[in-house]
Amino acid sequence: MLLGGCLALPQTGLFAFRLAVTSLGIEDVRIGPYSVQAGLDTSDIASLVASSLGMGSLPVQATLAMGLSLPFGMPPVEMSGFRWTLDVPGTEPVSGDYRQDVTLTSGDDTKLRLPVAFDVLASDSRRLAPMVELATQLASQGELPAGSELAITPGSLRGLGVTLPAGLWTPTLRFAVGQDGELTPQR
Q1: Are 72 and 20 in contact (CB under 8 A)?
Q2: What is the pTM of this model?
Q3: Which of 12, 123, 147, 174 is deepest in the core (most CB within 10 A)?
């Protein structure tokens, strides 16, 4: 039995290396106090920005909708949350912790929602126009711009009767967003 546990330990860690982000999109974009539906007309964003500027800040918030799964044929793995970082061109990286357990199964997407927020005016004021352009793109297209990178560092993993603590066999996984919104794993 001890030998079986020793063999399962690296296999469970190996499953974390094979984690796949199967979908990635943007929902519920907010500019200041105003909600903008992703994929709808965003021609009036300039007036939303102008009304929010009087408050001295211009927060942009969105929900990152993400699907995670394991490749076909792999046994289920329970991930004890994860740390994530989103790096979008033209902004400071945004990060957070997903604190809920996530059950990953072979071939089935686990749907997650991550809150993402940044303040346009908190960075260099000369970058106001590009940041407003980014907010417009997030709202109108419902996806991250090309060149964005999502990094996920899994928490502890449970599977095949063993538990791996976070960091031991669970490296940070990086995914780049391409021109058509496709995700490419990075090494």
Answers
A1: no
A2: 0.77
A3: 12
